[in-house]
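Q: I'm writing up a methods section and want to include an example of the input and output format. Could you take the sequence below and give the corresponding predicted structure tokens, formatted cleanly so I can copy it straight into the document?
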Amino acid sequence: MNPEPLWLTFKLATITSVILLVLALPLAYWLAFGKFKGRGIVESLIGMPLVLPPSVIGFYLLLAFSPSYWFGAWIESVFGLRLVFSFPGLVIASVLYSLPFMVYPIRAGLQSLPPSLREASYTLGKNEWETFFKVLLPNCKPAILTAFVITFAHTVGEFGVVLMIGGNIPGVTKVASVAIYNEVEALNYGAANDYALVLFAITFVILLLVYSVNNRLLRVRQPS
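A: Here is the clean output for your methods example:
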């Protein structure tokens, strides 16, 4: 078994999850407490990866990233970066595809907090962002941890989007899910099982640790 697809998979999942955490924190707060027109449109756009087939999203991202279309041509001319069949293209596609898996759990965690926390913070003279970072987020650790791990695990398991955008370039875009598909197609079930078993074991251990930590945090928050 070549470990390179596994390394690329976890590299992609880590980068995607970190980027999405930075983006999702203010976005989740905005969705949880913001008052604006068009909320349904915004939420529908964010949630589309939950219901659309990955091949549909991958197809439209492939068109958008292609240098034959204006966005891909603009990226290549300004930044000298070709997104199609490249690792940066995989990262951008994964960020877009995994966005709801990070945003929605954090938003749910924020909305589950008692309103008195925000009101008390404002009463003590904290502004909105100080309240968010110093009051709400510390009380929302289980939701944030769950969102991060779900996003990581979801990115590890991506297939349709990464295949459409990245193709099958060894050492560049050939992640573990694509490697499994290749081995099955070649009837190398032993190699496919090796990749699948490693992914299964690692994701199971990660989820087990997360649920254990979350249960401990929830017990600490519960009044005795």
